[in-house]
Amino acid sequence: MHITLVKKILADGSPCKKCADVIGKLEASNQMQYIDKIVTADERDSNSEGLKLAEKHSVGRAPFFLVEQEDKPAVIYTVYFKFVKEVLDGKTNEADEIKEIMNDNPDLDFI
Amino acid sequence: MSSSLLNTVDIDATLQQQSPKEIITYALAEFSHIALSFSGAEDVVLIDMAHRIDPNIEVFCLDTGRLHPETYQYIEQVRNHYKIDIDILSPDSETVRNLVQRKGLYSFLTDNHQECCGIRKITPLRNKLLEVDAWITGQRKDQSPGTRASIPIIQEDKAFARANETLTKFNPLANWTSQQVWDYIRINDIPYNSLHDKGYTSIGCEPCTRPTGPGQHEREGRWWWEESTKKECGLHSTNVDK
């Protein structure tokens, strides 16, 4: 299994807050060891590796995780807690999962 | 067909040119395990369109326990009008009990609405979506220029998909305006929520919804005490070479 974390740099050059938050969580839980590669989706650079990966996999947000396994299609995770639970077999809190989903999808509460 | 074989980006380009009814026809033909989300408001047009195509369309509704009496009456009216089953989804009672014991019945007025919505609405929604391969919503671009301006007709729902599987989300009304929705309701004489006649445009839970005045956007009738926050998780794909 090969895991790539795509983090983002905004068009004004500032780092993405959620990316920093996700990396902080991975480090705090000692799970950064499972991340094989970190690439950047730099909104100022259309050729940045992260933007190319986002385009290739039709991903519209960052951070996201690209999980590749031999003989299997690549899987994209845009929800950190879902990635932790399903890929790293980590324990997650449902309230935290829901909170992340709502933060990433601000129109969901209008459903 | 397995949704994993669908290229939603290419299909979206085609569906963008089609009418809501054509989009629903496509969705129902493509997926056998598909359900329609009904909010108890003007998205009833989806039920009307889908019911004409498949009278056995699966419909679900999120009952937060805090809806207006008019909305409950309306849901029942729709059930009887179309003679369909509507799967009423309730939140987990122990989780609600814990929230209320800790923070009372109106925590959303002092915190924000997300924790309450998460428990009463989003968690039951997630549990429901684990049962299906695709779902249909009434989301429209004109409902919120900030958060819905770019919603596609079809998309891969990565947030609610089962582990190692895909979930496809259809937004057949994405390109319709509120006026088009209401024209459809009037022309087809479809029953609608009586709250609309009292000035409500966007209808949610009773404590968190109010009528809107002339010139106000419908979203101003929801969680009006909160300051809207700008979300910045999207990738600005216009920077990507095509």
Plain-language structure description:
- The complex is a heterodimer of chains A (111) and B (242).
- Chain A has 111 residues and is an alpha+beta fold.
- Chain A contains four helices and four strands; from the N terminus they run E-H-E-H-E-E-H-H.
- Chain A has a four-stranded mixed β-sheet with strand order 2-1-3-4.
- The longest helix of chain A has 12 residues, at 17-28.
- In chain A, 35% of the residues are buried.
- Chain B has 242 residues and is α/β, with parallel strands linked by helices.
- Helix content of chain B is 35%, strand content 9%.
- Chain B contains eight helices and six strands; from the N terminus they run ααβαβαβαααβββα.
- Chain B has helices at 8-15, 20-30, 44-53, 69-82, 93-103, 107-110, 114-129, 178-187, and strands at residues 34-37, 58-62, 86-89, 134-136, 154-156, 168-170.
- Chain B has a six-stranded mixed β-sheet, with helices on both faces.
- In chain B, strand 1 (34-37), helix 3 and strand 2 (58-62) form a beta-alpha-beta unit.
- The longest helix of chain B is centred in the middle third of the chain and has 16 residues, at 114-129.
- Classes of the chains: A alpha+beta (111), B alpha/beta (242).
- The A-B interface holds A 8, 10-11, 16-18, 41, 43-47, 51-52, 54-55, 58-62, 73, 75-79, 82, 85-86, 94-95, 98-99, 101-111 and B 4, 8-9, 37, 39, 62, 113-115, 117-119, 121-123, 125-126, 137, 139, 143-144, 146-148, 151, 156, 158-160, 163-164, 202, 204, 219, 222, 231-237, 239-241.
Strand order of the largest sheet of chain B: 3-2-1-4-6-5
What structural category arises from helix and sheet content of chain B?
alpha/beta
Describe the main β-sheet of chain B briefly: 6 strands, mixed
H/E element sequence of chain B: HHEHEHEHHHEEEH
What would you call the shape of chain A? globular
Helix content of chain A: 25-40%
Which oligomeric form is depicted? heterodimer
Provide the gyration radius of chain B in Å: 18 Å
Termini gap of chain A: 36 Å
DSSP, total strands of chain B? 6
Distance between the termini of chain B: 29 Å
Output the helix-strand order of chain A.
Answer: EHEHEEHH
What's the pLDDT, averaged over the residues of chain B?
A: 89
Catalogue the unreliable spans of chain A.
none
